[in-house]
Amino acid sequence: MKSFNRLSKRQQHMMRFMHAYTQKQGFPPSIREIGEECDIGSTSVVNYNLNKLVDAGYIVRSGKVSRGLRIVGPIPGVTTGRRVIGAVGPHRVALVGRIAAGEPISLPEDIGHHIEEDDYITVPPNLLGSYDASEAFALTVRGDSMIDAMIKDGDIVILRRQNTAENGEMVAAWLPEDNETTLKHFYHEGDGVRLQPANRDYEPIYVHPANCEIKGKVLSVMRSFH
Amino acid sequence: MKSFNRLSKRQQHMMRFMHAYTQKQGFPPSIREIGEECDIGSTSVVNYNLNKLVDAGYIVRSGKVSRGLRIVGPIPGVTTGRRVIGAVGPHRVALVGRIAAGEPISLPEDIGHHIEEDDYITVPPNLLGSYDASEAFALTVRGDSMIDAMIKDGDIVILRRQNTAENGEMVAAWLPEDNETTLKHFYHEGDGVRLQPANRDYEPIYVHPANCEIKGKVLSVMRSFH
DNA sequence: ATTATACACGAACATTTGTTTTTGCGTCAA
DNA sequence: TTGACGCAAAAACAAATGTTCGTGTATAAT
């Protein structure tokens, strides 16, 4: 058996092209199309390297049928790398950190600062509602206090920056006195504010408006099952 | 302009076959393969109906290249939705219709009336996991049977196309006998299959594997408040 | 009846496309 | 040196595959 993962520069080029072509066209390229793109003069050389990729487990071929190949392995420079190509575009919001949905935890930086390039996340337009991506930011949820609101640990919530909230809205609230940020339902309660978890195991938090700074309201949530 | 929502039985058969074949093989079928499957004796007849489907906006063809076709419209009996031509790009998956998470509902076979949002939706890479956007599709959830799995009515689930499933995975299953598609947890149960809702108010569905076609497994979910 | 249209068949045709064969160039080890 | 082996090129071959053309059959509209 050979060493895996050792693709020649040419084979990597082929992998990338086959992936891009299939994405764009809806069907895989022919041997000659691969050869033309990768500057390979002969179809047999393409065929040779294609079989190499099969041996390495990167693709599967269906013999004798035209365009009979399918990508089953990682695409060098696209899937393997952490950096995703083509990630520049609209509907990108900052993934600024984590927020407690259980016991409040402190957020190191204020929301909206120290955002790295990799901390942006692409968001479907429908998750932004009528708001612009520039108004929005994202947080990873920690804790289970919003479990009854169908938000659980690990979820990513999309919020719109705003300093006020209506009764019943789900908001990210910063408690300056404790330097803590938390995710709760917002309610006016007399002169004060009630931050209501959506979990019977947790008690609501009562604070003075001066000690409760709304950072944004929740627009949407997304979750990945691993 | 013609009416595009009326496909002949033969054309529906072709649509279903092209979809299933592409799913299974990774590339579209040839004209002769379509003809053989759909009991069409002549390639020209297949070609004729293929062009009909192009006119109707169900597929796109790349002239002169083998297997040069791509499905861009709804698949009768499988999906619903509005048709879109050439709307492809990175991290975009087809939003193909709705799926029942409660009592199974049958998907209407005539299409073209649903004025939904875009038929394609941008999906953050993290919601696709290790899979490619070309393998994925999206469905809007109807019903509350998966409420205990934190999926509720109106949610959009991202799925990866596959015909098999592991025990416990959440899958979209098509029940050909009833022409119904449903979202359930999948379990092998002796010789049969158990489709388990995540809601105490709903009973599991027991079916024979022959009457249960897995369409894909759920990768992720997203929800918008409002 | 006539025309138009949708749909279908079969056969030939022209390309596309995967496969095979032959040849050659390097590198590396015995 | 010699020989094995990975890699590459060109040409020829065989099969797969899309396209076209002539024809036929219903059905509905005029």
Beta-sheet strand percentage of chain A? Answer: 25-35%
Major beta-sheet overview of chain A: 9 strands, mixed
Major sheet: arrangement of strands of chain A: 4-3-5-6-11-7-8-9-10
Q: What is the CATH architecture annotation of the largest domain in chain A?
A: Ribbon
By CATH's scheme, which homologous superfamily of the largest domain in chain A applies?
Answer: Umud Fragment, subunit A
Count interface residues per chain for the largest interface.
A-B, 45 and 46 residues
Low confidence ranges of chain A = 1-5, 77-91, 102-119
Measured distance between first and last alpha carbons of chain A: 31 Å
How many whole angstroms does the radius of gyration of chain A measure?
25 Å
- The backbone outline of chain A, from C-alpha atoms, is rod-shaped
Give average pLDDT of chain A, whole number.
73
CATH topology of the largest domain in chain A: Umud Fragment, subunit A
- Work out the helix count of chain A: 4
Class per helix and strand makeup of chain A: alpha+beta
Number of strands of chain A: 11
In terms of quaternary structure, the protein is: homodimer
Instruction: Report helical residue fraction of chain A.
Output: 10-25%
Number of domains of chain A: 2
